[in-house]
C-alpha cells in the first residue's frame, strides 16, 4: 500500500475509491464481524471495492435513488435490483473493470415498508476469475473530460442475492425476521461530508497553487513584444495585464490554503464534540463547508484556465500540465454535491439564521453578523450613512465584506417575502428567489475567506513573511471589491471616488508583488516531478525541454507515419 | 475535395491548414508562374502544405520571429535557417506528419540588409517516399488539450536551399542579383486578418449555440430533486438558477450570430473599397475585429463550460460532446492573436480616437460616441445628471452601454495622462494603464454587440419572431448590466433602485422565455449527427443511448480487462 501511493503522484487512479471511500466506509459502518470478514481482506487488496451511490438518472437528490434491496426472511438474504434504466449505478471510480466488490446504496424494503437508503456490500466479480457474477451487469462508462486512468463504471443489478450480514449494520439493522432497527442519529453522516468538502477546498488551493507556479515561472522565462522600442523583449511578467491575471490568483491560492487548514481544524474539533454527543456546531459547519466547496472550486477552476491561457499557445500543449490540471480539477464543481445545489444549502442556513435574528434570537458563530442587519441595513440609511471603509486597511475591508454579505442575505430574504405576498407556496417563493440566494451565499463565503486570510496574518511572527502575506491579503480583498464593485456601491459601502482609489491601489500592489512573485510560488514547494510541467520547471530551461518532450511524441516513433501509407498515398494516387 | 469536407463534420483535421491557409495564401500571393507550379499540384493534393509562422519562442510579436532566409546570388537560392532553439517553427497544423511542403515566414536577408518577414515555399518531404529532405528536422509537437486529430508540428531548418522562385513574389520581390523590391502597401494583409477574425466570431456563436442546444434539451429531459414536496421531480429547466445559467447564454449565441453576420458583410463591402484603393474604413474594422474576436471567444469559452456543468455529472462524459466542444473552441482565445493583445489593439484605436476627438476632430463611424464624451462626461455631472435609462427599453439600454464605453475610454485615457505627468515614457504610461485599457475595449465591444442585436430586430418582419428575439435582446442587455453593475453605478447611468428593477425584470424574462427555450435551440437547426451528443439528442431519448454508448467503451471489449492479469492479480499474489 505504501508503494502504491507513489505510482502517479497527484493523479486519479482506479484504486482511489477503494482507499478513499470503500475502506473508510467499512471502518465507520461495519459491525465487528463485518470488520473481520471484509475489512481485513480489503486492506490486503484481495477485496477491491468501490462506493456505488450515484445512478444514471439521480445524483444530488438522494431520496430519488431507485436501486432496491428487498429483504427475504425465508433465505435471510437481500435481493438487489436496478428496476429501471435510470436506476443503473453510474460513475463510481474503479467500478468498471477494477473492483470485485462495491458498497451499494439502495432503498431498503423489509416487511412491506421502505426505510430509505442503506449501504450493502455486494460482490461483483469472481474472486478467482474476475468474471462478473450472475445478475451483475458491470462495465466502463466510456471516455470523459479527464480521469483517463480511472474506470468509472456502471452497474445493473438483476435479482442479485446477498446474505443479510452484507448490510452495513453498525447503526441501522435488519434482524433475521426482517424487523428494522433505526440508527441513533441521522446527523452522523454529516461529518464525513464536511471532511470531504474540507479536503476539496484544500485541493482547490493545491490545483491553483500548481497552476500559478507554472504560469508565473514561465512568465519569467518567456519574452515577448516590447514595452519600450529598441529594448530587448521583456519578460511577459512585466506586463500589467499579465500581473493582473496571475497575482490575484496567487493570492487566492494562499487564501484557500488557509481556509482549508481552518476547516480541517474545525472539523477535528467538532468531531471531538460529536463523539461526546454535542452536535450544536454541526449545522453551521455543514452549511459553511457546502458553500466554501462551491465557492473555492468555481473560482479555482476558472483560475486554472486563466493561468493556462496566460501561458499563450504553449499553455495549450499538455507539456504545460495545465490542461490535465484543469480537466481533473474541474470535476470537483460537480461531484460531492453540485455547486449550485451546495450554494443553495448554505443559503438555507443563512435565511434560517436571518429569520431567527429577525425574530429576536441572538445568533452566535460566523453568522452573528446577521444580528446587526435589521438595525443597520435600513434602506433609507444606505445613502445617508457615512462611508467608513478604509481601502488600505484589511480590517476595514473585512468589515465591508461582512456588511455586503449581510445586505445580500437581506435582499434574498426580502425576495422570498415578496414572493410569499403574491400567495405562491413557500417552495415556489424559494425557487423564484434562487438567483438572490446563490448571490447571498457567494457573498457570505467571500466574507469568510477574507476574514480567515486576515486572521491568519495574526499568527505570523516573521516580519518579512507577514509583510508579503499582508500585501497578498490586501490584493485579494481589493480585487474582490473591484470585481463585485456593484455590490459595494449598491449597498453604499463604498463611494465612487473610493472605487477609483481601489483601482489605483491594486495597480500599486501588483508592482509591489512583482519582485516576490517567483519566490511566492517557489514557497508552495512543488518539485518538478510533482508539477510534471515543462513550462513550470524550476531551472527555467523551458525551450530545450519542450523540444525534447515533443520528440518523444507517439507520432514521432517513425519518420513516416502509417497514415501516409494508409490514407495519403492512396488518396494522391486516386486524384 | 468535396468528399473530404464530410469526413468529420465540424472537427479539426490534418488538412485544415492546407485548405484554409496554404491554398489561399498561394492564391493571393503567387506570381502567375508560381500559380502554375504550386497551386495546381496543391489543389490536386500532390503538394500538401501548411503555414509555418509561429516559432517556439515567438508568437504574437511578428518582428521577433528569428527564422532567416538569406539570398545567395551565386546560386540564385535562398538559404533557410533556424538559428536558435527558440526559432524552431512550432504549432502549425498538419506540419508534423502530413505536409510535404510549407509556406515558411522568415526574415529576408539580401545584399547585407534585412527586409523583414516574407513568405517562402519550402519542400519538406520527398514527393516519392515522404521522408524528410536533408536539413529538414520535422515532427509532431505531442499531445494537446484538444485537436487530437491534428499533427501540429515543429520544423527546424538547417541550411535548406530553395530556388529564388520559391519566394512568394506577387507583391514584394527579390531580383536575380539580389535587389529587393518593396510591396505596394502593407495594409493589404489586414484584410485577411479581419476575415479570419470575423469567421472566429461566427465560430463563437456556433460553439455556444451547440452547447446551449445540448444543455437546454437535456435540462428538459433530466428530472431532479423537488420544488414542491410530494410532487414528481421537476425538469431541471424549471429551476431559476438553471434558467439563469442557460438563457443569457442562449441570448448571447444569437447576439454573436448577428455580430458575425455583420462583420462578414462589412468585410465584403470594405474589400470592394480596398480593391478600388480606398483604405479609409480599414483601421476601424481592423480594430473592431480584434476586440470582438477576443470579447466573443472569452465569453463563449466560459459559456460552454457553464453549459457543460449545467448538465451535472453527465456533462463531464464525452458522450455529452461538451468536453470536446470546449477544448477545441477555447484555442480561439489564443490563436490568431492572443486575446489580451487583441484587446489592447482595439484600445489603441479607441485612445487614438479619443485624443482626436479631444483635439476637436469630428469622429465618424462606430467611435463617434467619443465626440460627445468631453462634453457629457464631466466628473461633476455624474451625480447631478438625471438618470434617463429606461430598463424596459432596448434603445435606452444601448444608449447606456454607449455612455459606459465612453466613460471607460475616458478613464483609460486619463490614466495614461496621469502616468505621463509622473514623467514616465509613453510606453510605460501605456503599460501602467493596461488594465484600464482592456476594460475600455471590453465595454466598447459590449456596446457594439448590444447595438447590433438591437439593430437586427429592426430587420425582422414576423411578429412572433420579433417578439421572442426582443425578449432575448433585452435579457442579453440587462444581464450584462447586472454583471457589470459597478460600471453603470459608477458612471451614474443607473441608480440603486433601478438596479433592483433590473434584477426583477431579469427574473420575469427568464420565466417568459422558459416555454420557448427548446424551440429557440431547435431553431439553430443542428442535426444529431452534427451535435454528436447523447445528451443533446433531438428525440430526448437520453438514458437508453447513454447506456448503449457506454457499452461501446474501448474498455468493455473484454469482460475481464488485461489490466487484471497484468497488474491486479500479480499484486494480489504478492501481498
Automatic annotation (TrEMBL), chains A, B:
Q: Look up the record and report any one GO term of the cellular component aspect.
A: peroxisome
Write down the InterPro entries for this protein, in alphabetical order: ACOX_C_alpha1 (IPR055060), Acyl-CoA_ox_N (IPR029320), Acyl-CoA_Oxase/DH_mid-dom (IPR006091), Acyl-CoA_Oxase/DH_mid-dom_sf (IPR046373), Acyl-CoA_oxidase (IPR012258), Acyl-CoA_oxidase_C (IPR002655), AcylCo_DH-like_C (IPR036250), AcylCoA_DH/ox_N_sf (IPR037069)
Entry cofactors: FAD
Domain named Acyl-CoA oxidase/dehydrogenase middle: which ranges?
A: 51-160
Where would I find the Acyl-CoA oxidase C-terminal domain in this sequence? 393-571
List each copy of the Acyl-CoA oxidase C-alpha1 domain by range: 190-351
According to its UniProt record, which residues of this chain constitute the active site? 336 (proton acceptor)
Stated name of the protein? Acyl-coenzyme A oxidase
What gene does this protein come from? Answer: ACOX1
